[in-house]
Automatic annotation (TrEMBL):
Keywords: ATP-binding, Cell membrane, Membrane, Nucleotide-binding, Repeat, Sugar transport, Translocase, Transport
Coiled coil (UniProt feature): none
Keyword Cell membrane in record: yes
Single GO MF descriptor: ATP binding
Cited CDD domains: ABC_Carb_Monos_II (cd03215)
Organism from which the protein derives: Auraticoccus monumenti
Alphabetized Pfam families for the sequence: ABC_tran (PF00005)
Domain ABC transporter stretches: 9-244, 250-495
Name this protein carries in UniProt: Monosaccharide ABC transporter ATP-binding protein, CUT2 family
InterPro entries: AAA+_ATPase, ABC_carbohydrate_import_ATPase, ABC_transporter-like_ATP-bd, ABC_transporter-like_CS, P-loop_NTPase
Length: 503
């Protein structure tokens, strides 16, 4: 990795206040040229706020941003982009129905007079792909690329114009272990050539794998700066982030006492037939590569995919397939892994979101007292960092939004909880709290189906694993067979097709 050199970007007393809420206290940080600089912190600590202030998508309440010594505080986002400062935010994605080339030249399409110059566009795009050792065709639709390739494409967009600084806010969300490693190798290769990165992640292993130094934020304040994460243990990093020791939760596997959920011959749009059972109080892991049938089956159970054959029975009641309201009424609740697309309703307040579609009533009226009690229950348990229960969901940090979605499902008191990436974007302390909570629910009889890219989470939480390939169950792991290596071996992990940039 390149030697850290002169300051590329510096902040002086940079502050962000929203109304009466201080998202970022006066902050002084320095990002050195050639470094991979990590920002760490719990949910709501202020990481995204800080990178948005650096990128110019949010303007500060006070303080300065210096770029190579020049004060750029008042420059807007577009000007900073021209200077090579780019942010790939948690929500940024490629435009699925545009080609790779169109995505890469956005928004500055090359023109010939009033016309779009397609040849120039393709040539520019191909040069970029070559420069960053990406081998997918410039004419492919961006939406047809694999998830990691879409991520690479969006990173390349942040690196265009010889980008001086690429800030990546949780870039590995929804990538498998193999995909992460290949992405990291690529980033390291670019870094070797002098590219500076800012990197945000809740995974200590990722921070240690890639960052040369870190800044740690807690409740909007810098509590550590300049540490080398490679010289620390994962527990030390967690302690720095949380401000306390994080007790890793270890679940004891419990044999199921009776069958609660019976899935029999389920066929859903080319997936299946799928048959399995889930016991009372059991956590069943569904594992498979994308489009293997694991996630499709989970969504079909929740009524979110049309089904053509088979039945789903919960406590003896047969659910009407393909009907989400019927699934909920029958006791099935599903946590989506697409928080932005199908999870949150931005304008709702937190307390409304927690009881959305599940309003407690007193006579004909919404029972406001019960809404408040629901908020209090999950606020203390899941520790949202928010200014009030009436704050709109869209203002919350990503991890806090995830906690609200989880709280909403728990408030439904389901019999079967289907969790698709329950700790997506959630910090190290809350992750353990979510695991503890799910364990308690299963101790009280709730059945859980878990999908998780993080094999460590899978291994620690489940009683049993069913693997999927080609749209049907391909095997089962129980007891001591449930290990990260065991799962990965069953997945028949195909190596990713890309070589690192330096190759
Ligand atoms: N537009 C806004 N209005 C009010 N408060 C906001 C707004 N944007 C962010 N906040 C608050 O600022 C705080 C910091 O949020 P930020 O998104 O920076 O956290 P984060 O460290 O990136 O968290 P996460 O790990 O969950 O993504 C949060 O408590 C959030 O609710």
């Amino acid at each position: 990795m390149s030697q850290a050199t002169a300051p590329l970007l510096e902040t002086r007393g940079l502050t962000k206040v929203y109304g009466r809420f201080t998202a970022l206290e006066p902050t002084d940080v320095t990002i050195h040229e050639g470094s991979i600089h990590g920002f760490l912190g719990k949910n709501g600590a202020g990481k995204s706020t800080l990178v948005q202030l650096l990128a110019g998508s949010v303007m500060p309440t006070a303080g300065q941003v210096l770029f190579r010594g020049q004060d750029i505080t008042s420059l807007p986002l577009a000007r900073r982009r021209e200077m090579g400062i780019h942010l790939l935010s948690q929500h940024a994605q490629v435009v699925a129905d545009l080609s790779v080339a169109e995505n890469l030249v956005l928004p500055g399409y090359p023109r010939k007079g009033p016309f779009l110059d397609r040849r120039a566009m393709r040539r520019q795009a191909q040069e970029l792909l070559d420069r960053y050792a990406l081998r997918f065709p410039v004419d492919a639709l961006a939406g047809s690329l694999s998830a990691p390739d879409q991520r690479r494409l969006s990173i390349v967009r942040t690196l265009m114009d010889q980008g001086a600084l690429a800030m990546l806010d949780e870039p590995t969300t929804a990538l498998s272990q193999g995909e992460r490693e290949s992405l990291f190798e690529w980033i390291r290769g670019l870094n070797e050539e002098g590219q500076t990165f800012v990197f945000i992640s809740h995974f200590n292993s990722e921070i240690q794998a890639i960052c040369t130094n870190v800044t740690v934020l807690r409740d909007g304040r810098v509590v550590a700066d300049g540490e080398d994460p490679r010289a620390m243990t994962s527990a030390e990093i967690s302690e720095l982030v949380v401000g306390d020791k994080v007790q890793e939760f270890v679940r004891t596997r419990r044999p199921a006492t009776r069958e609660r959920v019976v899935v029999d011959g389920l066929v859903s749009d080319g997936v299946g037939p799928v048959s399995f059972t889930v016991g009372e109080g059991e956590i069943l892991g569904l594992v498979g590569l994308p489009e293997s049938g694991a996630q499709e089956t989970a969504r079909a159970l929740a009524g979110l995919r049309p089904t053509q054959a088979g039945t789903v029975t919960v406590d003896g009641r047969v659910l009407r397939a393909g009907h989400v309201r019927d699934a909920i009424a029958g006791g099935v609740a599903y946590l989506t892994n697409d928080r932005i697309g199908e999870g949150i309703v931005g304008a709702l307040t937190i307390r409304e979101m927690l009881r959305l579609g599940n309003w407690p009533t007193r006579g004909p009226l919404v029972d406001d007292g019960e809404v408040s009690r629901t908020y209090d229950r999950y606020h203390s348990r899941l520790e949202f960092r928010v200014s009030s229960s009436r704050q709109p969901i869209e203002e919350l940090s990503g991890g806090n939004q995830q906690k609200i979605l989880l709280g909403r499902l728990l408030a439904l008191e389901p019999k079967l909880l289907v969790l698709d990436e329950p700790t997506l974007g959630v910090d190290v302390a809350t992750k353990e709290e979510v695991h503890r909570l799910v364990d308690e629910l299963t101790a009280n009889g709730m059945s859980v189906i878990l999908l998780a890219y993080d094999t460590d989470e899978m291994v620690r939480m489940v009683d049993r694993v069913i693997t999927f390939s080609d749209g049907t169950p391909s095997g089962q792991l129980t007891g001591d067979e449930i290990t990260a290596d065991g799962i990965i071996a069953r997945l028949n992990h195909a190596p990713t097709e890309l070589a690192p940039a330096s190759a």
